[in-house]
Design brief:
single chain, 254 residues, alpha/beta, Rossmann fold, 4-stranded antiparallel sheet, 9 helices, 12 strands, 26% strand, globular, binds adenosine-5'-diphosphate, binds magnesium ion
Length: 254
């Protein structure tokens, strides 16, 4: 008998309505430990709602959610200790330097060596040179990287990134992608939401498309591509892009 390690995230039959608006109508998904999972959906699809339930900020109407083995409904404190959440809007204090922001969070978490932790994270996110500057002077990408670094203090095994690159310029997006890849390389499980097909394509081990309250497909990029007719040969061979798959399943964007 082989024992599979339990998935980092298990969602089963998740439902959530706001009054008559049925946002999540039975969502099922699993995220393997140490993997990057992209929840892809148009604006208003319910991505933030799902992330808020998974991170114990919002109660589900029905269904079960386990994160790091803990039930979000009955073991919320254990879930909170297992996760970090970075929202769409950076929680960085602009008056403080990058390093001071990190030290502050480490102190709030009662960790022993806040300075050491800060320096290590600055290094990991290529912010060492900028560490002594006020965060107000940072570019969008630097700020978002600092935000992600802050959310890693205390080494949570699972991290939720809700639209980590929305509003960033292309260079800044690439910087954030590198930071996310680095997280997964270290064994952190990452669930990110995005409206950007290329982001899912670039980063994710698995991609799930949330549409009209349900997961309409869930697989690797290669599996998603197989949903469309095989590549056609014209002058060059053209593989269906994730965009082709998305549009075929969801219809027109936005
Ligand atoms: N607190 C709320 N009260 C009422 N409706 C909400 C609330 N939060 C979100 N909604 C609605 O639920 C739907 C899904 O929202 P959301 O989860 O934020 O989607 P996404 O993050 O995919 O853009 C949207 O139609 C949104 O307007
Ligand atoms: Mg959202």
């Amino acid at each position: 008998m082989t024992t599979q390690p339990a998935p980092a995230i298990q969602v089963c039959g998740l439902q959530k309505s706001y009054k008559e608006l049925r946002v999540l109508r039975g969502v099922d998904l699993e995220v393997a430990r140490g993997s990057i999972f992209a929840l892809l959906g148009s604006n208003g699809a319910g991505k933030t709602t799902a992330v808020r339930i998974l991170s114990t900020l919002l109660r589900a109407d029905a269904g079960t959610v386990r994160v790091n083995g803990f039930d979000v409904a009955t073991q919320a404190a254990d879930v909170r200790e297992s996760i970090s959440l970075t929202g769409q809007f950076a929680a960085v204090d602009e008056i403080l330097t990058g390093r001071e922001n990190l030290v502050l969070v480490a102190r709030l978490r009662h960790l022993k060596n806040p300075g050491e932790i800060a320096d290590d994270l600055l290094e990991r996110f290529s912010l060492t040179d900028a560490g002594g500057r006020r965060a107000a002077t940072y570019s969008g990408g630097m700020r978002r990287r600092l935000d992600i670094a802050m959310s890693l203090i205390g080494d949570p095994p699972v991290i939720f990134l809700d639209e980590p690159t929305t509003g960033l310029d292309p260079q800044a997006r690439i910087e954030v992608w590198q930071a996310v890849r680095e997280l997964a390389d270290r064994g952190t499980t990452v669930l990110l939401t995005t409206q950007y097909l290329d982001e899912a394509e670039q980063l994710a081990d698995r991609i799930a498309i949330l549409h009209e309250g349900r997961i309409v497909v869930n697989g690797t990029l290669a599996e998603l591509r197989k949903l469309l007719p095989p590549a056609t040969v014209e002058y060059v061979e053209k593989q269906p892009t994730l965009e082709d798959v998305f549009l075929a399943l969801v219809g027109t964007k936005g």
